[in-house]
Amino acid sequence: MLTERLRRTPLLLAALLLSVTVLSACGSGGPAKTPATGAEAAKEPIQGGSVVVAVPQDPDYLDPHLAVASGTQEMMFNVFEGLLKPNEKGELQPAVAQEYKVSPDGLTYTFTLRDGVKFHNGKTVAAEDVKFSYERLMGKETGKPLSSAFANVEAVDTPDAKTVTVKLKKNDVSFMSNFTAAILPKGYDNQNKAPIGTGPFKFVEFQPNQKLVIEKNKDYYVKGVPYLDKVEFRIMPDAEASLLALKSGDIDMYPRIGNERIAELGDQFRYVEGMQNMVQLMTMNIARKPFDDPRVRQAINYAVDTDEIIKVVADGKGTKLGSNMSPVMQKYFQEGLESTYNVNVDKAKSLLAEAGLKDGFSTTISVPSNYKFHVDTAQVIAQQLAKVGITAKIEMVEWAVWLDRIYKGRDYDMTIIGLTGKLDPHEVLVRYASDYKSNFYNYNNPEYDKLIKAAQVELDDAKRAQLYKDAQKLLTKDAVAVYIMDPNFTVAMKKELDGYKLYPIYVQDMSTIHRVK
């Protein structure tokens, strides 16, 4: 599942034609702040009205159990809910469920459903709907799970209409985040054309390449929200067109606007910005010489000046990283790794000489051509590598080619991409496990695998956090990639709008957006 987007500070997600939730250049979460421009004291919310939001791509499927594109979740987060739902800090909160408990052995989860939750067709949610939804994800009837995570579910039972128990085949502490999977009404088979969920908004219509419209769910179980009567997600792949539409008033909100464009908009708009739960990195193909030698990878890390990249490419609006974890994941983030490879040209040359490459070597940095942010990053890195004798040619490839040849086929020397954040640290770091099918870095370290497997079944949260921190240290020590930054996310909106929340996942929560007097 990969999604990718960026462009001079997450501007680009313009060409997310196929995003597949593993890669992305924009997550969306972390501490939000409203800069001085457009900042105002809290004003009284107004109920009602409509908002037009620019988004870069069509949904891949309206059926939430089939959808893999992050751009789909961005919109449909407002329509579907699971037993649990993340808040803006990434913490899992009861949603369709009122409460839950986990057995001491970590294998059985028992949920009590919330009273008064209704599907958009008016049907009250019952335990049988949860069982239907999870067994659909398990592929019970087809034998083909729609979600690989649910292949670990042994049984879903419904002791009564308000109680659901889920038993796993083997312990997996990270499974908790899967309870955010959409609960669907049993027996309804038209989700991909007229989706029905329990969220704060109901689906109205979808016109490919034009718009997706949702409207207020007046029966939503959380009182007072949503404020808006209607939201139109307007499909606008071209970032420049989105900017012009915002200036002209044709749209009301532009998420992931390039920070370098804020100056030309001035104080006529409200801005919210913050860290994303995302990792931009330049990875090296460890299965290909000379990158199979850790000294070469370390030399490249010493040669690359990430501070300069943040300044030049992200206009200074990015958080420097040292491993594959964003500070947004506070509990699991290992501090200090960003200083491991401070720029040292002499050290880089020395390591290359030790590896038998005293005169340097030539290589290719392959980047998705539709992501200007990554292209700009590659250009800066190529100049930096030249200082230690490495000649780096920049190869720009189409996104579809990148997915097929590089991500799936692992045919590349070096590449620059952004890895999307997840709610659970296991989903972030398992990407480097040797048996992970999308380990396109070709990283293989038995010690790392052991840490990841231990963390997956560790019930003590403090011990689990330390295991993931140790895993981050290994990635840095082995110089698997050049970990660059978590670029800031910025949204621009009309001044009369307020209530925007940043999440550590790729969503637009429209339930709290409102106009102010």
Tally of individual domains: 3
**CATH superfamily (homologous) name of the largest domain:** Dipeptide-binding Protein, Domain 3
Strand % is 15-25%
Structural class: alpha+beta
Question: In CATH terms, what is the fold-level topology of the largest domain?
Answer: Dipeptide-binding Protein, domain 3
* Count of alpha and pi helical runs: 12
- Biggest sheet: strands, sense, closure? 6 strands, mixed
Please identify the top-level CATH class of the largest domain. Alpha Beta
Strand order of the largest sheet: 16-20-15-19-17-18
Instruction: Give the uncertain stretches in residue-range form.
Output: 1-40
Distinctive features:
alpha+beta, Dipeptide-binding Protein, domain 1, D-Maltodextrin-Binding Protein, domain 2, Dipeptide-binding Protein, domain 3, six-stranded mixed β-sheet, 12 helices, 23% strand, signal, Peptide/nickel transport system substrate-binding protein, transport, peptide transmembrane transporter activity, Peptide/Ni-bd
